[in-house]
Design a protein that fits this description.
This protein is mainly α. The chain has four helices and no strands. The mean pLDDT is 94.
């Protein structure tokens, strides 16, 4: 595997993990799956915007930002 292949593999891993986290954070609901799909195809621009919006909505509470509906 060349460095391009390694980069593509790493970047695909990032896209899959961000999509799974976004969907999981929203309880795998319809909107959550839609956001996960957007996260996969839009990548870093979506994720940074999503995290910025969440940081304002959750008043900077990192546990609520990361866990979403899964907080206990």
């Amino acid at each position: 595997m060349t460095w391009q292949g390694q980069f593509n593999t790493d970047f695909m891993g990032f896209l899959v993990l961000s999509a799974l986290w976004t969907a999981w954070r929203n309880g795998f609901s319809g909107p959550g799956l839609g956001l996960g799909l957007i996260a996969f195809f839009a990548g870093i621009p979506f994720l940074t915007t999503y995290l910025l919006i969440l940081s304002y909505q959750e008043a900077g509470d990192i546990q609520r930002i990361l866990l979403g509906v899964n907080k206990r």
